[in-house]
Write a structure and sequence with these properties.
The protein has 13 helices and 14 strands. By secondary structure, the protein is of the alpha/beta class. The chain has a domain at about 10-25 and about 340-440. The protein starts with 5 loop residues before the first strand and ends in a 5-residue tail after the last helix. It comes from Herminiimonas fonticola. It holds the Pfam family NMT1_3. Keywords: Membrane, Transmembrane, Transmembrane helix.
């Protein structure tokens, strides 16, 4: 009889059988946790800005550039302005994810019911009331009977300007208003076909910059700006400093007091938290410097908005970038931050498993040897359970069965570190054979 003993240095099969189910279970748990937490933001975002040549449009391009550094494609869509942006965000059929919205455009309770969040206030966008020099506008009551463009309904300026007129006891119907877009309204003002126009925009707007330098066009000085800020919580008193437009030409020639809502970034509350982090970082990069109306570091912030600020953005503005993002790339830091609960849970699971798995592996390998002891014992039992006078009939069959067991044992593949277990089994098989032969009266070889 040919005997073949198979030895290996390590049993991959036993290791897989022992560890495999646990690994599959852990992998499945990680997969479902990944799907549930969804740590990575979407690769595309749709941004509603404002009218062409407006500050919103210019800043939208900067956000697209900043988000593009992280592989996120930003689709910019123009709009009439703040009011239309707010309407689009509230429209379930709209594909807009985030937009510029002027403070004062909605109420806190309405924003919560609509499921909107703010990613922070970005900059002041003063009310710019430009008028023709010959209008000699010193007081808002002089606007009666004047031709004034108040912007399109979608811009949010008409609502704001109406509130200003109402505060001055001016009937809106006493003012000849038009609602042209910013560019055609500027053309009409320069052509003398209207007397004044109203913008609410950051000074970065191209039309604002042009009108501030245009001879014959004057800027209205809101001398009661501080009072407006007390009456309307969403308005701030800001000052356009003397010479800020052009130092060499001393433009403007004096400080101008203006009233200013703030521009905020508003999104649907379902916006991915990691994307909120990225946009907040972009906001700091774009708006964090000094401006005409603010000092460095004043913006962005979580103030001046009636819309609830996203917790991630509020924490970012308060504490700065998370610790991991200061030392690791955003994608790595974001994954760890979003998945830390899973990582901690895995650590708590793996530590005890690391103590349990080695004994399980040893048991699995030894079980391939030990299971034959049951069959070996059954051969002995078959002889011992019958009267001595009837054993002779069973000897040939049990010897044959014992030989079959031995042949199968010789085919077992087992690590060398467990070779003593296999040799012990073979010795016990031989002992049982000798016992059977002794009982049968045949002398063992």
């Amino acid at each position: 009889m040919k005997k073949i003993l198979k030895f290996t240095s390590f049993s991959l099969r036993d290791l897989f059988v022992t560890v495999g189910p646990l690994v599959i279970l852990i992998a499945a748990a990680c997969y479902f946790a990944y799907k549930l937490i969804n740590p990575f933001p979407p690769s595309q975002v749709v941004f509603s800005t404002g009218q062409d040549s407006s500050a919103y449009a210019e800043f939208g391009k900067k956000y697209a550039q900043e988000l593009g550094k992280f592989g996120i494609t930003t689709t910019l869509k123009s709009s009439q302005g703040s009011a239309e942006n707010l309407r689009l965000l509230n429209d379930e059929d709209s594909d807009i994810d985030i937009a510029f919205v002027q403070s004062g455009s909605t109420q806190h309770a309405d924003a919560e019911r609509s499921g909107l969040i703010s990613i922070g206030s970005l900059f002041y966008e003063p009310v710019w009331l430009f008028y023709r020099e010959n209008a000699q506008l010193k007081n808002l009551t002089q606007l009666k009977k004047m031709k004034v463009n108040v912007g399109t309904d979608g811009s949010g300026v008409p609502k704001l300007f109406n509130a200003i007129l109402e505060a001055n006891d001016i009937d809106i119907n006493s003012v000849k208003t038009s609602k042209l877009a910013d560019t055609p309204a500027t053309v009409e003002l320069l052509a003398g076909r209207i007397d004044a126009l109203v913008f609410s925009s950051a000074p970065d707007g191209l039309l604002i910059q042009m009108l501030l330098r245009t001879p014959g066009i004057k800027l209205f000085d809101f001398s009661q700006a501080e009072a407006y800020s007390r009456r309307f919580p969403y308005l701030s008193h800001v000052v356009l400093p003397r010479g800020i437009v052009d130092f060499s030409r001393d433009m403007p020639v004096k400080n101008y007091h203006l009233i200013a809502p703030t521009a905020t970034l508003v999104a649907r509350e379902g916006l991915h938290p990691a994307l909120v982090d990225l946009i907040a970082q972009a906001a700091v990069s774009i708006h964090g410097g000094a401006g005409w109306f603010n000092k460095k570091g004043e913006f962005p912030n979580g103030s001046y908005t009636e819309i609830p600020v996203a917790p991630q953005a509020e924490k970012f503005y308060r504490d700065g970038a998370p610790l991991l993002q200061r030392y690791f790339p955003f994608w790595v830091a974001n994954f760890v931050e979003r998945m830390w609960i899973v990582i901690v849970a895995l650590g708590a699971l793996i530590i005890p498993l690391s103590r349990i798995l080695p004994p399980l592996y040893v048991w699995k390998v030894r079980s391939r040897v030990y299971r034959w002891y049951g069959q070996l014992r059954s051969v002995e039992q078959a002889i011992e359970d019958v009267p001595p006078e009837k054993r002779a009939e069973l000897f040939p069959a049990q010897l044959t069965r014992l030989t079959e067991i031995e042949e199968k044992v010789n085919q077992i593949s087992i690590p060398l570190s467990f070779a003593d277990e296999l040799y012990r089994l073979r010795s016990n098989i031989n002992l049982v054979r000798k016992r059977i032969l002794w009982l049968s009266g045949v002398k063992a070889a």
